[in-house]
Amino acid sequence: MPATDRISSTHQRWTLDDIPWHAIRRDKVAHQEELFYFVSTASFVEITTDLYTRNLIGYFAGDDEVTAWLEQHWLHEELQHGEALKRYVQTAWPEFDWETTYKGYLREYAACCKLDALEPTRSMEMAARCVVEMGTASFYTALSRLSPDPVLSVLTWHIREDEVHHYKYFYRYFRHYRKLESAGRTRTLRALWHRLRMIDGEDGLIACKHVYGALHPDAPFDIHVYRQVQKRCRRVAGRYFPHEMSIKMLLKPLDLNPRVEQVAAPILQGLARYMVA
Ligand SMILES: [Fe+2]
Ligand SMILES: [Fe+2]
After folding, report:
1. Domains in the chain, ordered, with CATH?
2. Counting C-beta atoms within 10 Å of the first and last residue's C-beta, which end of the chain has fewer, N or C?
3. What is the value of pTM for the model shown?
4. Nearest ligand to the C-alpha of residue 166?
């Protein structure tokens, strides 16, 4: 990557020591089952980031700036998200056996997990990564807004800021590779759509299954139960979801002219409201 396109390296913006764990309001979250699902399943998925993304770094071999950023900043921050959420769960819901439940999740997920299916070109992979970071940035924004516990709000806002930051990096790298590969808008749209359809992936389903199993040891779990849990969670999160921000982040790689974007954005926002709320 040319020197002019380089981005100054990041420093760690926060650590687990910045979170006032002692101030967690257990009384406010103890009986919030949907909140428990959000935080516990997110902790499982984030803490397992290295398992399904190890091929991503290899895909960009030779681009030292990208691989250094992925290894030293991005991956480290994603794993920190997992550690922080785990600690929150263990403090706020101590009766939940995080370690044992996670072991069950990891066993099942590792057995069926395929490495992330990468896009055929580097520019399209960067576009797909923008969708993933848009998804997580939106999720943590909603979580931060809806949390009745200020400590969880602060923690998820830190994570949200990281995810927005990740988006900016991937977007910047996307622009670099798009130019290099002369990638057009149709291909970009296809990559965005492809990744968007994968956002509700297997990791979320398996995480939900194990958390549900810990809460209801004798109850069977199937896709219908999963949809019910999802529905309940969406009902809680829907009105806190940052629809406008999500659509802006989603459309950005398409470089639409402002007039087209003005027409497309409200339609997509309506669609997003319908899908999330
Ligand atoms: Fe994350
Ligand atoms: Fe991220």
Report:
1. 27-238 (1.10.620)
2. C
3. 0.90
4. 2
